[in-house]
């Protein structure tokens, strides 16, 4: 079963090679073939998730390994949706090309053992809170990669509308994640908010993206917008990974 992740990882590496070699040599056929290999990578991961669900007999939302699985598959789905929605331009899939080998590599480093559900996680709010948070992080990750690329290339007009939509959808789902998390916290710990590191950094991330959206409405430059998107992605990475391993707190079971 674990071989599916390894094979998916191999296809993601093939994808990144085909994409960049095709770009450097101006070989459009190579880049187009990379669409096929990244689709195979996504499909294999999807099969793994199905098998994992059948084995665990529960949703895959309870620890770092499971949420990385979910987040990567969401990134695949979201990025492919925009690809087919927006004229099938290969460059739309660039975030997936970059993120997939990194996440698949991380999956090989995290404990894959299926563990019993902790008492604190036995709540109907688990699905709403974690799923909405992962959806928001997936949209922010895609937008963040674009921010990094367009800050370097200094031209993002072609995908500006797409990126703006990704940020807005991500912001809505992050808001839902924070609200449902607060409701869940009240039922589990007797209080809506405790300034736990994960809660605090989620709120910081929320405010940061609120500022980005506000400045976007005010007409900030493309360069500034792209830079803010990249920094926003760094906030997401720290909130998602960094807090779990560096700060701990009530959410330490997510590791």
Quick tags:
2 domains, 255 residues, 8 helices, globular, mainly alpha, single chain
Summarize the structure.
This protein is mainly alpha-helical. It has helices at 3-24, 28-56, 64-85, 94-107, 125-153, 160-189, 197-217, 222-247. Helix 1 (3-24) packs antiparallel against helix 2 (28-56) and helix 3 (64-85) packs across helix 5.
Structural summary, described in words:
The protein has 255 residues and is mainly α. The chain has two domains: 1-114; 118-255, no CATH class. It has helices at 3-24, 28-56, 64-85, 94-107, 125-153, 160-189, 197-217, 222-247. The radius of gyration is 18 Å and the shape is globular. The model has no long low-confidence stretch (mean pLDDT 85).
Helix-strand layout with pairing:
Elements lengths: L2 H22 L3 H29 L7 H22 L8 H14 L17 H29 L6 H30 L7 H21 L4 H26 L8
Radius of gyration: 18 Å
Order of helices and strands: HHHHHHHH
Number of helices: 8
What oligomerization state is this entry in? single chain
The gross shape turns out to be globular
What's the number of domains?
A: 2
User: Care to count the β-strands?
Assistant: 0
% residues in beta strands? under 5%
Task: Determine the structural class based on helices, strands and strand pairing.
Answer: mainly alpha
């Amino acid at each position: 079963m674990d071989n599916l992740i390894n094979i998916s990882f191999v296809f993601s590496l093939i994808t990144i090679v085909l994409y960049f070699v095709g770009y450097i040599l101006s070989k459009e056929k190579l880049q187009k073939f990379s669409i096929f290999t990244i689709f195979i990578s996504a499909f294999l991961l999807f099969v793994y998730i199905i098998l994992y669900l059948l084995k665990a007999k529960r949703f895959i939302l309870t620890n770092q390994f499971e949420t990385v699985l979910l987040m990567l598959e969401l990134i695949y789905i979201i990025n492919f949706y925009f690809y087919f929605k927006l004229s099938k331009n290969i460059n739309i899939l660039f975030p997936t090309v970059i993120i997939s080998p990194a996440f698949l590599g991380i999956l090989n480093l995290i404990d894959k053992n299926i563990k019993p559900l902790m008492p604190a996680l036995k709540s109907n709010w688990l699905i709403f809170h974690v799923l909405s948070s992962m959806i928001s992080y997936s949209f922010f990750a895609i937008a963040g990669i674009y921010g990094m690329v367009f800050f370097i290339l200094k031209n993002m007009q072609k995908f500006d509308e797409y990126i703006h939509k990704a940020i807005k959808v991500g912001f809505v789902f992050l808001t839902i994640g924070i609200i449902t998390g607060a409701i869940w916290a009240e039922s589990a710990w007797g209080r809506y908010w405790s300034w736990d590191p994960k809660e605090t950094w989620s709120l910081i991330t929320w405010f940061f993206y609120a500022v980005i959206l506000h400045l976007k409405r005010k007409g900030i430059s493309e360069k500034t917008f792209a830079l803010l998107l990249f920094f926003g992605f760094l906030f997401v990475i720290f909130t998602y990974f960094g807090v779990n391993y560096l700060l701990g707190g009530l959410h330490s079971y997510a590791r």
